[in-house]
Every structure is written in C-alpha cells, then in structure tokens.
Amino acid sequence: MFNFKEHPMKMKSIFNKKTLIAIATIGTLSFQSCLDDGDNYAVRFPNALVTVKTDADQTVFLQLDDKTTLLPTNMPKSPYGEKEVRALINYKEVDEPGDIYTQAVYINWIDSILTKPVAPDLGEENDAVYGTDPVEIVNDWVTIAEDGYLTLRFRTRRGDYHTKHFVNLLLSQNPENPYEAEFRHNAKGDIYGKYADGLVAFKLDALPDTEGKTVKLKLKWKSYSGEKSVEFDYCTRKSVTPESPAVTSVRNSLNLQ
C-alpha cells in the first residue's frame, strides 16, 4: 500500500500478511493502525474505488466512475508506473483547480487490486487450468461493472497462506448472449479452513462494443450451493483520455494469481 500520510497505516491480511487485503478496510477483517489519536477515524477506510490512469503528458489521474475524474495533488506520478490498475483509495477534496479533471483531491492512501484481462479460452483444458472450485460473490459496493472493468469481491475457504489461488474471468461463448462471462477459481488444493474474502478486477475490452448502450452483463460462477448468476449494467468504456497503457497484474494483493 502506498501511504501519503506521515504515519504509515498498517493493515492485517488474512491471505498474505505481507500485503494489504483491500477487503479488510471494508469491514470483514480487522486491522491495526499507528495513526495519531488526532487523525480522523474515517481515514482508515476506503471511500472510493478507482482506476489509476496516466494521461498523454504522464499526469496521473483517477477515474472515479464513467464520468468523474480526480486529480491527486499530492501524487505527482503513479506508484504503478504506466500500468493501469484498479485501486481502493481514501481521499478528500481540496480547494484547488482540477484543470481538465472533475475535482482536485488529496490522497491519504492508495492500494491496488489484482487487475487482469479476460483469460483465453482453452477449450477442454479450461477446467484443469482455471479450476472449478467454489466461491461466493459478495454483494458489496466494490462488486461493480464500471469504467470498462468488472470488479468482484468474492469469498472462499482458505487454510494455507502460502498457496496462491488462481482466479480468472472467461467469456462463456454463448451464441445467444455475447455479454456473458464465467468466474473461475482454482484453489490449488487449498479448499479447507476459514472463509476469507478477496478482490479482483477484470478488464472487459474483450467484450463486443455496446456502442454507447447499456446492456446486461451476466456473470456465472460455481458457488458452495450450486451454480449461480447475476447481472450487471454494462456499457463499453468511454474514452476520456488518450489510449491507456495495457492492463497488467501489478501484484498479488491477496496471494492470488
């Protein structure tokens, strides 16, 4: 986690003690803080889910939703270089000009989410590679389709903290619905233990262009109680800046792949 306060904030992870679990700040996990007593308690929690982008002139900015952009006044360059990632942040608005951006803000802290492209269809090898282990998709404010990404909070069993779970999004190849995808989970044999939550974001540029319309994006997954699905409102990402750098997996926030 990149922290822009004088006193760094530490958070306790249930998946990997060396890295931040974004979910911890949402309310399911505990964390520790060495903030001063005078610091605002609310600073400990994320108040936005954003896409970290870099403009043509290398100015870093944050895409808050499909229309709103934030200019971080205390973050002259992206902590992630030219890589575009989804991230949780805690920020406050400041009384400074935002130039071409919607609002100038001060970033208290930022932490990236594992950000991946849609996985290639391997046909008969899908089950062996991507797995069929169950998960639950959590209905939460960070489970959302926006800015060309599907961000998911999910829940599964976790026992071995050294095993990286492999999560992916596959297109369903349904000829009747091109906007259908499947969440896959390969626990690498780590299927016992307590329930734990994770966050992952998938870039949806492999889907057909909706041509400005909002359509229903259907997500399917194997849950602990059987097959489930849910629909999201989805519109192809609108360009607000010059073409962004290619999406890559910056780090395994939750000991994931």
From TrEMBL:
Domain NigD-like N-terminal OB: 49-113
Domain of life: Bacteria
Location of the NigD-like C-terminal domain: 119-234
Pfam families (alphabetical): NigD_C, NigD_N
Family matches, as InterPro entries: NigD-like_C_dom_sf, NigD-like_N_sf, NigD-like_OB_dom, NigD_C
Cited Gene3D superfamilies: NigD-like N-terminal OB domain, NigD-like, C-terminal beta sandwich domain
Protein name in UniProt: NigD-like C-terminal beta sandwich domain-containing protein
Source organism of the structure: Bacteroides muris
Lineage of producing organism: Bacteria, Pseudomonadati, Bacteroidota, Bacteroidia, Bacteroidales
